[in-house]
């Protein structure tokens, strides 16, 4: 019968004060340990002494003592955990694997030691041994997580394999068969298990099978992330070039409907759909950015495809200006707009920046004072304009004196902005 518990050290109570010793000053700990050793020879005390030596700069002595204890193959949990801590501080995680390999040979039914062995292999990237340790653990304690640890180890072997052909002909097919066995026996319990199955099928290029899994009973387990199931369906529709279904699912998600949306394929349909969303958003007290950005994205895509329908969506410069008026005081405004600045003709960049500056509420400038923002919202708007100015290359074309003037101005604006943080 498998045992979850570890081998308890009877000296726990006496060792507790030593564990609590200050890490930066290990001298008192060493003194306590030497006194403890006079009573008898205990593995854990010797390891704690080695930790004290390690932390006082005596690395060679610490390593020698630790290896002496490890050679005796201790099986008490305190000694094993202390050695693990020591090896971690020595940056020798591979020695932890040797430690638990010996422990599971002596205590073959320990669930805990087999788990530690698996994790030790994971830390050093021994994926083949992880697979074996996972299956050994599952045979002792037939729990789903342990079985799928082995499956995950196969996936890791496929990812790390230098030969992609080996990955797709051996590791992934074996992982697929292992999961299918659990599916046929109706033993799939957790969302992570479905995620692994989906990952395997996707890596094998079995997009239809992956879609069937997500849309079937197993897909009901995908609940931890919002729209996780729908997003995976969308990814598979794209891989399969099933654009009508992709279109319908996209509309459903955007409209927040429980039914599949209609399939709209023309540019006119896309324009109308976006305009309707913008109209809905305008009636909502809370501004939403998505529909406005969708319009700019559609213009960019129509332009890249050589379509002549972009005029129906409006002038990009005006659309970005209106977007700035709505969202310019948000830190995300710059990152939202920067992907669309290539829609502006080079000759209009200066005009565009001046247009933005015209709606930023700044104080009236004087001979010795800059036009400054009066609150944080205005400061954020002005910062967005400065970022766009730099992105468009308008600072780059300045001469040396103009650039120095901008530097002085920005330093003054920075000092002024600190006032809002007081």
Automatic annotation (TrEMBL):
Basic and acidic residues bias spans: 1-15
Region annotation (Disordered) ranges: 1-24
Gene Ontology terms: cellular component: NatB complex
Domain of life of the native organism: Eukaryota
SUPFAM superfamilies: TPR-like (SSF48452)
Transmembrane intervals: none
Stored InterPro entries: NAA25_NatB_aux_su, TPR-like_helical_dom_sf
Family per record: Belongs to the MDM20/NAA25 family.
Name under which the protein is recorded: N-alpha-acetyltransferase 25, NatB auxiliary subunit
Organism: Myodes glareolus (Bank vole)
């Amino acid at each position: 019968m498998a045992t979850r518990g570890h081998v308890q050290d009877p000296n726990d109570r006496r060792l507790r004060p030593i564990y609590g010793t200050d890490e930066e000053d290990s001298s008192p700990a060493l003194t306590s340990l030497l006194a403890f050793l006079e009573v008898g020879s205990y593995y854990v005390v010797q390891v704690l002494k080695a930790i004290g030596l390690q932390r006082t700069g005596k690395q060679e002595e610490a390593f020698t003592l630790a290896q002496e204890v490890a050679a005796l193959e201790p099986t008490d949990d305190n000694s094993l955990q202390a050695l693990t801590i020591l090896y971690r501080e020595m940056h020798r995680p591979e020695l932890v694997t040797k430690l638990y390999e010996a422990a599971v040979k002596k205590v073959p039914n320990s669930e805990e030691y087999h788990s530690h062995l698996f994790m030790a292999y994971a830390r050093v990237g021994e994926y083949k041994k992880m697979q074996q340790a996972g299956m050994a653990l599952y045979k002792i304690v037939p729990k789903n997580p342990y079985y799928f640890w082995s499956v995950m180890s196969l996936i890791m072997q496929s990812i790390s394999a230098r030969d992609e052909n080996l990955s797709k002909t051996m590791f992934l097919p074996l992982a697929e068969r292992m999961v299918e066995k659990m599916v046929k026996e109706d033993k799939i319990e957790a969302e992570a298990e479905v995620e692994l199955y989906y990952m395997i099928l996707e890596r094998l290029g079995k997009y239809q099978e992956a879609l069937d899994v997500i849309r079937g009973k197993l897909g009901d387990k995908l609940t931890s992330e919002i729209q996780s199931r729908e997003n995976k369906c969308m990814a598979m529709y794209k891989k399969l070039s099933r654009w009508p279904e992709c279109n319908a699912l996209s509309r459903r998600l955007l409209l927040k409907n429980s039914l599949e949306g209609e399939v709209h394929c023309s540019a006119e349909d896309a324009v109308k759909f976006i305009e309707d969303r913008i109209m809905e958003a305008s009636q909502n007290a809370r501004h939403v950015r998505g529909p406005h950005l969708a319009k700019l994205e559609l213009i960019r895509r129509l332009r890249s495809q050589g379509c002549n329908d972009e005029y129906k969506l409006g002038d990009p410069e005006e659309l970005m200006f209106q977007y700035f008026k709505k969202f310019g005081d948000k830190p995300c405004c710059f990152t939202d707009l920067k992907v669309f600045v290539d829609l502006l003709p080079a000759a209009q960049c200066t005009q565009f920046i001046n247009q933005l500056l015209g709606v930023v509420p700044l104080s009236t400038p004087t001979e010795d004072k800059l036009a400054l923002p009066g609150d944080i919202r205005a400061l954020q708007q002005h910062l967005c304009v400065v970022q766009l100015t730099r992105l468009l290359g308008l600072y780059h074309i300045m001469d040396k004196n103009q650039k120095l003037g901008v530097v002085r101005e920005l330093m003054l604006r920075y000092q002024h902005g600190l006032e809002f943080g007081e």
